[in-house]
Design a protein that fits this description.
single chain, 554 residues, alpha/beta, eight-stranded mixed β-sheet, five-stranded parallel β-sheet, 17 helices, 20 strands, binds NADP nicotinamide-adenine-dinucleotide phosphate
Length: 554
């Protein structure tokens, strides 16, 4: 058996990679995390745009694995902001001495399975020097992040604008001077909604280019005092148990009364309370029919539309901000602070791209097509809040080759398939704690990550103890899981959504509307955990393990 540089290599040092390396280090496995950024943090390293913050309650987002960590960290806000989140992840890495296992500026450009040698060969480019090196490992763990491949519009003249322009993911590290500036924001997804609410009163003029509005509701953020934090610390076990019980992995649990069993007055009473409560309650503590019943969804959507009309003074603008092509909650719901009020400011304008589509970027700004011909807008700064090649995008950017030289890009070209969202047939010895079709994407992400990392680590321990050096899920097991995931979409109104949950992205060839990609597991966290644990209890039913003497790296 050929020696390898590492027994395990994880790719990506975000929330998932940090916990994964902690588990491997504790087991004494020779492992490394490769990270293309100059430092750790993943999503919280990159997304430095104003307004970037959790919309999960901070204390449900943090890791649960260490009581000491829980006891010493004080979340200062109910929905903590990016700088604090990054400080937290750095604190975790330093506390558990995890940096020594991390290699930064290391972009994995290719990963090839070597069948005779039973190992992965990784080609790694140094982002500073541009040089490449090869690393080998027995097992590779993809902790790439679900939203780590930003996408830009495909417009003529993208490079011609003379001022600063950037995707929100690449918001500059140094402060951007906004005072007095004419700023364009393209997009009205979760990111744009945070940016717009935050910068509207800080810029000279703000013009928002909206193609389709999104449903959004108040975040209702607030500080967490020392006394409240002490209470949270006392209740951590209870809090995490509640997250584990709820489909979304949050403290919010669905209202289990039937939508039609209660009076309209009762429904309004619940919605009034949820609208003014913090976080995702408005989405996840609502009636379950909202997700599956068109009429129930329409009634609730109209309730939210009315709340928007009350907040936006100009009825024409209010109407433009209300989605007409989908109901509330069938796409990922952004939570907002002062978003709708921003449009009441004299310095904020909304451009409806359905009426006047963007045609190009110019030296001085943006051009739209108008019934009369065209209109040019001049800006100092252009912000692209145009989303991500979600879920499979980060995988597609690595040339991953499995058995017989097949590429993962090709395998997933039309949709994706996996076993439990954690393994892929044809790609042996590869694990994804939070991969496509896993329970993480549609839930409170770190809760799902801990579940996934624990499952993958337990599986590796099981394989290592037996002396197995190769594993691969069977084609049948993968087909069964994928059919299960696809089947659940048919019950959900979400199947009709044009959003990243269904793989839509107008900026990625092949991902334009029309084809649903079955990216997320819709059964909720408890069912997902039950399923993956049952598989483990049955000796990893569906996975073929091959024993041989493994010569681990020295
Ligand atoms: P997104 O939800 O995909 O939104 C992208 C926006 O850009 C949409 O409004 C889209 O319009 C628009 N757009 C894309 N291409 C365009 C083009 N060529 N021309 C004009 N408009 C274009 O992306 P996101 O806002 O970055 O959010 C992605 C996900 O990140 C969220 O759903 C959430 O899961 C996560 N996120 C989380 C937080 C948090 O935790 N607090 C914050 C931000 C983001 P169409 O709808 O018409 O395509």
């Amino acid at each position: 058996m050929t020696r390898t540089d590492y027994e395990v290599i994880a790719i990506g040092a975000g929330v998932g990679g940090i916990y994964q390396i902690k588990r491997l280090a504790d087991l004494g496995v020779k492992a490394a995390v490769l990270e293309l950024a100059p430092d750790l943090g993943g999503t919280w390293y990159w997304n430095r745009y104003p307004g970037a913050r959790f919309d999960s309650e901070s204390y449900t987002y943090g890791y649960s694995f260490s009581r000491e960590l829980l006891d010493e960290w004080h979340w200062k806000e109910r929905f903590s902001s990016q700088p604090e989140n990054l400080r937290y992840l750095n604190h975790v890495a330093d506390k558990f001495d995890l940096r020594r296992h991390m290699q930064f500026n290391s972009r994995v450009v290719a990963a090839e399975w070597d069948e005779p040698a039973r190992l992965w060969r990784l080609t790694v480019r140094d982002e500073k020097s541009g040089g490449t090196r090869e690393l080998t490992c027995r097992f590779v763990i993809m902790t790439l992040g679900l939203l780590s491949q930003p996408t830009l519009p495909r417009l003529e003249g993208m490079d011609s604008f003379k001022g600063p322009s950037f995707h929100t993911y690449y918001w500059p590290q140094e402060p951007v001077e906004l005072a007095g500036k004419k700023v364009a924001v393209i997009g009205t997804g979760a990111t744009a909604i945070q940016v717009i609410g935050e910068i509207a009163d800080k810029v000279g003029e703000l013009t928002v280019f909206q193609r389709r509005p999104n449903w959004s509701a108040p975040l209702n953020n607030s500080p967490i005092s020392e006394a409240e934090m002490a209470d949270i610390r006392r209740r951590y076990d209870e809090i995490f148990a509640a997250c584990a019980r709820s489909p979304g992995g949050f403290e919010h649990e669905p209202d289990r009364r039937g939508f039609y069993e209660v009076s309209r007055e009762e429904r309004i009473k619940l919605w009034d309370r949820l609208y003014d409560s913090p976080g995702f309650g408005i989405w996840l503590a609502n009636f379950r029919e909202i997700f599956i019943d068109e009429a129930a969804n329409a009634e609730f959507s109209e309730y939210v539309a009315e709340r928007i009309r009350r907040r936006v003074k100009d009825p024409v603008v209010a109407d433009k901000l209300i989605p007409k092509d989908h109901g509330f909650g069938i796409q990922r719901v952004p939570l907002e602070t002062n978003y709708f009020e921003a449009y009441n400011r004299p310095n904020v304008k909304l451009v409806d791209l359905q009426e006047t589509p963007l045609t190009r970027v110019t030296e001085k700004g943006l051009r739209t097509a108008t019934p009369e011909g065209s209109r040019d807008y001049e800006f100092d700064i252009i912000v692209y809040a145009t989303g991500f090649d979600a879920i499979t995008g980060a995988f597609d950017h690595i040339d991953i080759r499995g058995t017989g030289g097949q590429t993962l890009r090709d395998k997933w070209r039309d949709s994706c398939s996996s076993f439990l969202g954690m393994m892929i047939h044809g790609f042996p010895n590869l694990l994804m704690p939070a991969g496509p079709q896993s329970g993480s994407a549609s839930t409170n992400y770190p809760r799902g990550i801990e579940t996934g990392v624990n499952w993958c680590t337990d599986f590796l321990q099981y394989a290592r103890k037996r002396g197995d050096c190769r594993f691969e899920p069977t084609a049948e097991a993968e087909a069964r899981w994928t059919a299960h995931v696809v089947g659940m979409y048919s019950m959900m109104l979400m199947r009709k959504a044009k959003g990243w949950f269904t793989g839509y992205n107008s900026n990625v060839p092949g991902h334009e509307e029309g084809k649903v990609r079955y990216f997320v597991y819709n059964g909720g966290a408890p069912k997902y955990v039950e399923r993956i644990n049952t598989i483990a209890e049955r000796g990893y039913d569906g996975v073929v393990l091959e024993s041989a003497r493994v010569e681990t790296a020295a």
